[in-house]
Amino acid sequence: AGNKTVLTNGKFQGNDSLELRDNHGFAHLPVLFTNKRDKAMVIGLGTGVSAGTMAAYDFKRIDVVELSPAIIETALGPFKLVNRDVLRDPRVRLLVEDGRNVLLTGKETYDVISIEVSSIWFAGAANLYNREFYELVQKHLHKGGVLQQWIQLHHTNRQTVATIVATLRKVFPHVVIA
Hints:
Blueprint: E1 5-8, E2 11-15, H1 20-32, E3 39-43, H2 49-54, E4 61-65, H3 69-76, E5 92-95, H4 99-105, E6 110-115, H5 131-139, E7 141-149, H6 158-171
Parallel strand pairs: 3-4, 3-6, 4-5, 6-7
Antiparallel strand pairs: 1-2
């Protein structure tokens, strides 16, 4: 029975108990929709559980992008058991940067890009939910590649969610909501 929780600026980011099933699911779901497992990118480390689950698959490389050194320290310490010590996996390349900037400046392409950042209403997060960002992501996906993006539903209204989905559909021909 876990009892550790990560908060940033008072906002829940993850724990080692109740949210584990969801974190695992976030990582399993996009892998089910791709046939190729060469490279994956995880933007937003949190507790590291989603990245650890992604590492359970046979990807040759997984780029984990996290802006906050404190989050990285937390994933390396108190949460290393639930994330399978993912940051020490030799296939994992940790980038201490802003995920959007990594995509803007990089040339890498991926089979899966998984995004689990803080709520859309946090400063700067809305930049990961607009058409320009989705077009940028699309340029970094191999043919048949999959984007998985967590959208927080609490403190968000139907109109915001509908706008995000409509924006996704303008860029990606197939959208699944789970």
